[in-house]
Amino acid sequence: MRIIRLYALVALLLPCLNSVSAKQYQVESPSGKITANIDCGYEMTYSVSYDGKEILSESPISISLSDGTVWGKNAKVSKAMRESVENIVENPFGQSSHIIDSYNGLTLRMKGGWSVEFRAYDDGLAYRFASIQTKPFEIVAERADFNFSADYTATVPYVRTGSDDDMQSQFFNSFENRYTVEKLSRLNPRRLAFLPLAVDADGVTVAITETDLNNYPGLYLYNPDGTSSLKGKHAPYPTKTVDGGYNNIQSVVTETADYIARVEGPRTFPWRILIMGADKDIAASNLSELLAEPSRIADISWIKPGKVAWDWWNDYNIIGVDFEAGHNTPTYKHYIDFAADNGIEYVILDDGWAAGKGEDLFVLNPEIDLEEIIGYAGKKNVGIILWAGYRAFERELEKVCRHYSEMGVKGFKVDFEDRDDQLMTAFNHRAAETAAKYHLVLDLHGAYKPAGINRTWPNVLNVEGVNGLENMKWSELDSFDIIQYDTELPFLRQVAGPVDYTQGAMVNAARHNFRPVNNQPMAPGTRSHQLALYMILYSPLNMLCDSPSNYRKEQECTDFISSIPTVWDETIVLDGKMGEYIVTARRKGNDWYIGGITNWTPRDLTVDLSSLNLKDGAKMKLFTDGVNAHRNGNDYRSETTDVAPSDTLKVHLAPGGGFAAHIYGASTLTEKNNHKS
């Protein structure tokens, strides 16, 4: 929903205001910080400046159709329309409950039934194509070039599957990888990078992403010629798929068309976004949600965000019980008891509740009495979410949603999508619509970035597309890099929407002590680092990855995690530098929650709390790295102290460390505890 404060629209016939010539146009952000110049000559190009400094030189954009038409070549502008908008956008399941949507816009309507729209915000620039053509057509290619003005340093997540010799094979991927930091000219010319990625333009960070990605393939970027340019590429349209991949629950593309998308009628296409500014401003950006299509669900009262007790990461490692843990009814009842005892809203039954490899979601594991589990959970006010492989879920989508909704299931975690071609992006919106019909929430896994689906379908509470904590179960290389990755993803992947990173490990190891153990996993870094991630990362459906037994042994930390909201009224990124550290504050009601993390470099931080508008008499529960956390990641210190409105918080972060704080109303309690394991 939007509450309009100011709206002005002026339709201008050529020549238009602020144009340099009859074919050149300019649009500036409200403060004048960002300027885009658009040229409609032989090619349609745009360039972008930030505070007067050119960041992007002339960069061609176009869409080529199968009949030979090219939108953007010798473009004939029939009308130029300008608007200045300042809205307040309601965002009930977001990082802030209300977002200011302030921009200057320019729409160029072209002869031939197409247009290009630009919007300039103070923190970024976006553009998209649109068509009013009623007859179906095919898009052969979309050109999306980013010609940077110098050979800047880029931070990119390469696709880590497929062959350098066969770019087509790279489109089947899980959208998980660490970041590579390299000069633009030295990027691998035969390796695609998925979005978001970032470029450091000598102190101005530019994060590139897209949103409103529905029924259109996702954008990849690569540098084929060793210049300072990035060029776009899309997966071709699948014409034949077969069941295959992991456990035969994926859909593998075996034949493709010579086009990327089929268009059936009038539509807008995804926004291409450049988020620009200082690092902490990038991390605070809401452009992905602001530019997405508003909610299609009229009544959202049934959608319930919350935290999730999860079985898969900890491999059912519960102790002190009188049954053998595993895929069985007593185990899931135990997880339900843990959730109920700690105010956790959901339990996920991951892979194993359905028989075999989950190929048929209507054939249950004989060790599972699903009706009994759902009924037991309902009595304890805990919702059940079921894992489902993509192909089994897609094959009988309506039937699966209807049947399990009637049983009392609250949602599905859909896994192993591993594509973002047109058929897959269309499926996710169709799945969200069908799930909403039956009041089911969704968590999309093995999936591409959210790209606005969480605003359009707010029952999509979380999306993976992140190199999350699950990789700590098997990859030593990932484990050494993930602490660095943790300080990068808030500035990159998270700008595209919610992140299902699955934090919360209660076995924490200093760098020299970590090892991957699939069946009894641990996490590198410190306990306070894990706690801080619940504030650093935005996850409306937020996992507790460890076992009930480990959480019960660490009840103080469990109490803290269970108290943390998953959606917020206000978010402020207080400080940060990509790849080094970040400090994020989030408010729910009158309470503030603050998290800070560092990479493997120990760090002393001074955090200014004055921007939080605290009241006199406030108290702060603070978790910091223990004095020996550099030796044993489990070492942490907790204390409850008074905090004044003008206070600064000084904390020391161990290597891979962090801190977590909850600031709340006045209290006379003062306590200090030291914890060593």
Search tags:
about 15% helix; globular; about 40% strand; disordered C terminus; alpha+beta; about 675 residues; disordered N terminus; 41 strands
Account of the protein in words:
- This protein is an alpha+beta fold and 677 residues long.
- The chain contains twelve helices and 41 strands.
- The strands form seven sheets. Strands 1, 7, 8, 9, 10, 12, 13, 15, 16, 22 and 23 form an eleven-stranded antiparallel β-sheet that branches. Strands 2, 3, 4, 5, 6, 11, 14, 17, 18 and 21 form a ten-stranded antiparallel β-sheet that branches.
- Helix 3 (329-341) runs parallel beside helix 4.
- The radius of gyration is 25 Å and the shape is globular.
- The two termini are 49 Å apart.
Give the SSE layout.
Blueprint: E1 2-12, E2 24-28, E3 34-40, E4 44-50, E5 53-65, E6 70-71, E7 77-90, E8 98-110, E9 114-121, E10 124-131, E11 137-147, E12 153-156, E13 180-183, E14 193-194, E15 197-201, E16 204-211, E17 219-222, E18 229-234, E19 238-244, E20 250-256, E21 261-263, E22 267-268, E23 271-277, H1 279-283, H2 287-290, E24 306-310, H3 329-341, E25 346-349, H4 370-379, E26 383-389, H5 390-395, H6 397-407, E27 411-415, H7 422-437, E28 441-444, H8 453-456, E29 460-463, H9 476-486, E30 508-509, E31 523-524, H10 527-536, E32 541-544, H11 548-553, H12 555-563, E33 570-577, E34 581-588, E35 591-598, E36 603-608, E37 618-625, E38 636-643, E39 648-653, E40 658-664, E41 671-675
Parallel strand pairs: 24-25, 24-32, 25-26, 26-27, 27-28, 28-29, 30-31
Antiparallel strand pairs: 1-7, 2-3, 3-4, 4-5, 5-6, 5-11, 7-8, 8-9, 9-10, 10-22, 10-23, 11-18, 11-21, 12-13, 12-15, 14-17, 15-16, 16-23, 17-18, 19-20, 33-34, 34-35, 35-40, 36-39, 37-38, 37-40, 38-41
Helix pairs in contact: 3-4
